[in-house]
Amino acid sequence: MSDVILWHNPACGTSRAALAMLRAAGIEPRILPYLQSPPDRETLRATIAAAGLTVREALRAKEPLCAELGLDDLGLGEAALLEAMLAHPVLINRPFVIAPGGTRLCRPAERLREILPGA
């Protein structure tokens, strides 16, 4: 089993690009289809923190649901944003890659090189 995990949305071009880069580097990641199997609260919080992001930075702000739910209100705290992301995983930005070399939100996919030199 791979020690690299990809939070993947196959409909996302950046997520597909990250997967292709991993495979080109000879890495077959464990794929977490996070829309169907979302992480639990602690995993989501810890992954965001490990990537060096705030919860707001990990929020997919371009998703129309973000505005519909009023999540673009900068007064909302991280707990409220986390709750929304857990209830609606489409609001989790992607792709997150978790590897021995670190955790990154790979937007753009080339950010993989920060944690996987061969990617």
UniProtKB/TrEMBL annotation:
Domain of life: Bacteria
A GO molecular-function annotation: arsenate reductase (glutaredoxin) activity
EC assignment: 1.20.4.1
Coiled coil: none
Example of a GO biological process term: response to arsenic-containing substance
Enzymatic reactions: [glutaredoxin]-dithiol + arsenate + glutathione + H(+) = glutathionyl-S-S-[glutaredoxin] + arsenite + H2O
Keyword entries, A-Z: Arsenical resistance, Oxidoreductase
Record's signal peptide: none
Family named by the database record: Belongs to the ArsC family.
Protein name as catalogued: Arsenate reductase
Organism: Roseicella frigidaeris
